[in-house]
Amino acid sequence: MRAPIDLRRPHRVIVGAFRILAWLLLLGLVVATLSPIGLRPSTAAGVAWDRGLAYAVTAIAFTLSYPGRGRGVVLCLLATVTALEPMQFLSATRHPGLVDAFVKSIGALAGSAAGNAVLFVAGHWGRWHKPTQPIKESTARSAPFVRRKTSSEPRQS
Predict the structure, then answer these.
(1) Residue 143: inside a domain, yes or no?
(2) Domain limits at 16?
(3) Cα 93–Cα 99–Cα 105 angle in degrees, nearest 5
(4) Band (112; pLDDT cuts 50, 70, 90)
(5) Could you please report the per-residue DSSP string of 107-135?
(6) Dihedral sign, Cα of residue 80, residue 33, residue 104, residue 108
(7) How many folded domains does the chain comprise?
(8) What is the rounded distance in angstroms from the CA atom of residue 123 to the CA atom of residue 117?
(9) Which residues neighbour 88 within 8 Å (Cβ) at sequence distance 6 or greater?
(10) In whole angstroms, what is the distance from residue 123 CA to residue 11 CA?
């Protein structure tokens, strides 16, 4: 039996939600890629933008779902692009192309880079934003920033 969700560790809940989202997005990509052209969703943006952004959002979701496995995420998404593009030959209304595969691959790489940037910033946020320590009364001067002497500097009398 699987253990219940531990709400005392919210990062696990968030990662689990991103995993579900990532796999649903990948399922949506497969359906949109292999469905007949009439069933394919369309937006106001160009077709290349649709393809690239779809893979970028999916790559961000997978990168946030599996932190520390960036290379694996990129390789799996590139393998997905490589596998799905030729499978469009099975549909009479679809037309695969190298340009389409290139745009989707660039979207996957850009999304993975963006996801890794988010993970990097989130991992270092606590180091960058530590609460400041108040200056002790004995060392406070009129200047707001006091330079403390190190042991290697000569003392001035």
Answers:
(1) no
(2) 10-127
(3) 105
(4) very high
(5) HHHHHHHHHHHHHHHHHHHHHHTPPPPPP
(6) negative
(7) 1
(8) 10
(9) 33, 34, 94, 95, 96
(10) 12
pLDDT of residue 7: 47
Q: Are 120 and 62 in contact (CB under 8 A)?
A: no
Of 86, 127, 85, which is closest to residue 105 (Cα–Cα)? 85
Confidence of residue 49 (pLDDT cuts 50, 70, 90): confident
Q: Which of 35-39, 55-59, 145-149 has the lowest mean pLDDT?
A: 145-149
* Confidence (pTM): 0.70
Answer yes or no: is 96 within a domain. yes
Q: Are 104 and 55 in contact (CB under 8 A)?
A: yes
> Is the per-residue pLDDT at 91 higher than 50?
yes
Within-domain flag for 46? yes
